[in-house]
Amino acid sequence: MTFDRTIELGVTGMTCEHCVSHVTEELKALPDVVNVSVTLAKGGTSKVLVYTNADIPDATLKEAIDEAGDYTLDAVERDVRIS
To answer: Which residues contact 63 (CB under 8 A, 6 or more apart)?
Structure first.
């Protein structure tokens, strides 16, 4: 798995592994996304780490989260470079 940065997302509304699967699937479908890792926080803000080789606009990330289901993108921490 080769990537040069990560984007950390805060997502609310996820309650189970089914939710994790939907969010992961939608984010992995975006161009330049290498992998997605989710730390589920039932009833709270789940941490979603997107491994990528390019910057992805907030609107594109929000659209993917919206497509996945009734989830809300609460936070985006971008340009977390991996050396």
So the answer is: none
Q: What pLDDT, on a 0 to 100 scale, did the predictor assign at position 81?
A: 59
Residue 24, both tokens: 């992961």
Q: Cβ distance 71 to 30 under 8 Å?
A: no
User: Are the C-beta atoms of residues 50 and 32 closer than 8 Å to each other?
Assistant: no
What DSSP line would sit under 9-77, residue for residue? EEEES--SHHHHHHHHHHHHTSTTEEEEEEE--TTSEEEEEEEESS---HHHHHHHHHHHSS-EEEEEE
Q: What is the DSSP string of 21-37?
A: HHHHHHHHTSTTEEEEE
Confidence of residue 78 (pLDDT cuts 50, 70, 90): confident
